[in-house]
Amino acid sequence: MNGTEDSERELGGDDAVAAEYVLGALGSEERATVARRIDADAAFAQLVDRWEVTLAPMANAYGSVEPPASVKQAIDRRLFSSTAAQTVEKAGIWSSLAFWRGLTVAAFAALALYIALPLVSPPPPATPAERLVASLAPQQSDVHYFVVYDARTKDIGLSHVTGARAPDHDFELWVIDGSQPPQSVGVIPAGSNVHLAVSQDIQQKIASGAVFAISLEPKGGSPTGAPTGPVVAAGDLRDI
Fold it and tell me: What digits encode the pLDDT tens for the residues 165-180?
């Protein structure tokens, strides 16, 4: 199965479930149910594998992120005192009774700190998700897109699943923030996997919980700055 074949058929049933599982668009309970089915249903597992191959190009634009080295150093400092470290060096970690006693005390201390800290200091402000995903499902049409938004690279990746655009027309992506008028992200280029840059204004709308919608517009996009054609697909964003 390739991206062209996927975009030529209507997505539904197990096909849609497998695709949304690969993309990470399912809730935790739904994802756990699908994971159990993958283990028990060989045909469904093969369908998931094919979608992983189809959607893999969307990840090519995003690099992996390593946790800072300071994270491990902070954990080491909290768990192991300098005295315990010296004892381990002399006697060996596995034979050091002092080390294990010290580790037990440190573990209890860490647990007490974990419980008490929220009571004596307010929690830190929530960090906005760096990567979000949306399944833009058909709205009285056969148009379906998967979308990945990366706040770090200010990029939106779109994977075209189904639905052909009409002759002399384009699909245009919009962001809708509450009751505010829709704002255009841009005309969606033709192709199975494409990307759109994101302006600072649109980044703020996405961070505040905006949703995506796709409209069918004249070639080149809406001439008015607002949607003029029918909304063919829409969906909200979720954390990855």
Answer: 888 999 999 999 888 8
